[in-house]
Specification:
The chain is α/β, with parallel strands linked by helices. Helix content is about 40%, strand content about 20%. The two termini are about 25 Å apart. The mean pLDDT is about 95.
């Protein structure tokens, strides 16, 4: 670029507040150069993680620093009006708490527990979200906050949150969420891979050999989710006489050392490993991260997964492969939603649009 072009572009960024002077540098002859740096406090974004029975909203600056957070026990089956009503209110409370005007909000990122058409932000036939099918989530929020609203499924944003916070140098990663359902977020070549319609990574509905005769909630037989997700394990243990009716209950039994629960979780790990072995051969990631509520059961789930993945994947694919528990934990989703919003807010197209009319 010509020096005049660079100066003009930097001048616009300075006037927008996205960069700021940070002092001067030593002269090597002529006028001393001025140093500028990104100003993360210039704008804020909202990140929202909506799960099957919970919701978390956070406000962050453009550097990803969390400025405030809200949580609620919320059933996604209550429908979009109830859930998005809470989201709208939570964002407003966070803006007021941090003393930021609504005009400082640059974008909103949301993760939902079901298939999402990322281009439109609409859930498509989500199995545990009655009343949400093709609902215009961005339009609902934009009635209150006229900013870009990015929507994706929950495991994709968890992958973004895990990579951005704890694995920034990992370009090829698979994040697997094991909870009420099972899904994967795929990052390849440092880019989140959503697929043609946004359903990439839906490994919960891959048929597995031990699932014969088991009908999944999707209507098919033998899906991984139907035999290895939290509710399936809880059902199996309850049938064996244990008082458990949830994924959290399964985790509690494992932590208490219950032998039947430990065996059931390890068995689930082997079933998950069967599907993951194929993904490892196809995608050749350097790290597989296991997250979600059932991952809180610890090494028993990971041991089952590792056993099958290392046994059935190509030796070259597993030579340097790491299979690890999520470090971001319950924060992965909300951090990833904020990351998605920041990436959009700082994209060349968004900055170009925002710079129109800057004097």
């Amino acid at each position: 670029m010509a020096r005049s072009t660079v100066a003009a572009r930097v001048d616009v960024l300075l006037r927008m507040g996205l960069v700021a002077p940070v002092g001067g540098a030593r002269s090597t002859g002529g006028r001393p150069p001025a140093l500028i740096a990104m100003n993360p406090a210039a704008r804020v974004v909202a990140g929202v993680d909506v799960g099957a029975t919970h919701a978390v909203a956070a406000l962050t600056d453009l550097g990803g620093t969390v400025l405030g957070e809200r949580q609620a026990a919320l059933d996604v089956a209550d429908g979009p009006d109830v859930v998005l009503g809470w989201v709208t209110g939570a964002i407003g409370e966070l803006l007021a708490e941090t003393r930021r005007p609504a005009a400082d909000l640059a974008a909103v990122g949301i993760g939902l527990p079901g298939p999402v058409q990322h281009s439109s932000g609409r859930p498509i036939n989500p199995p545990i979200m009655p009343g949400w099918d093709r609902y215009d989530v961005p339009a609902h929020l934009q009635r209150t906050y006229p900013v870009p609203v990015l929507v994706d499924n929950d495991v994709n944003i968890m992958a973004l949150g895990e990579q951005g916070t704890f694995l920034p140098d990992v370009a090829d990663l698979i994040f697997v969420k094991v909870a009420t359902g099972i899904g994967a977020g795929i990052i390849s070549g440092s880019r989140l891979q959503r697929g043609a319609q946004g359903t990439a990574g839906d490994l919960g509905h891959v048929r597995v050999s031990s699932g014969d005769g088991v009908i999944c909630r999707c209507g098919n037989e033998g899906c991984l989710e139907a035999i290895a997700a939290g509710p399936a394990l809880a059902g199996a243990l309850a049938a064996g006489g244990l008082a458990v009716d949830s994924t959290a209950g399964v985790v509690e039994l494992v932590r208490a050392g219950d032998k039947a629960a430990v065996q059931e979780v390890r068995r689930a790990g082997r079933d998950i490993g069967e599907v993951l072995a194929t993904m490892v051969n196809l995608m050749n990631p350097s790290v597989v991260v296991i997250g979600g509520r059932l991952a809180e059961a610890g090494e028993h789930l990971l041991a089952g997964i590792r056993e099958i993945v290392y046994q059935r994947s190509l030796p070259l694919a597993t030579e340097h492969l790491r299979i690890v528990a999520s470090k971001a934990g319950a924060q992965a989703g909300v951090l990833g939603a904020a990351t998605m919003a920041v990436e959009h807010a700082l994209s060349p197209e968004a900055i170009e649009a925002a710079s129109v009319g800057v004097a």
